[in-house]
Amino acid sequence: MIGKMLEKLKPVKKTDKKSVKNLKATKLGKKAVLPKKEPKGALKILFAIGGYFKGAWIELRQVRWTTRKATWSLTLAVILFTAFFFLLILLLDFGFKELFNLILK
User: Which of 22, 34, 82, 93 is the most core-located residue (most Cβ within 10 A)?
Assistant: First the structure.
């Protein structure tokens, strides 16, 4: 029984995505999608640069910027942490200096 079912199966052809899209488009009564021509030479470089800036602009539009209040509070936090670690390193440096002076005397 299974052997007869397997005999009826036809091998599947490999098709590319564009031909599948064109087939679906023609069935729906739409125009077929034509493949785009690749630019050559210096135009290819210009298109690549343009594509980069287009993508960067799209990403920048998706950024959720912080409010002014949040920005100032984060800036204050960075200043406070910087001052704290500055004083910590200054005190450690002074302490090790005095410790070495006691050892070397």
Answer: 22
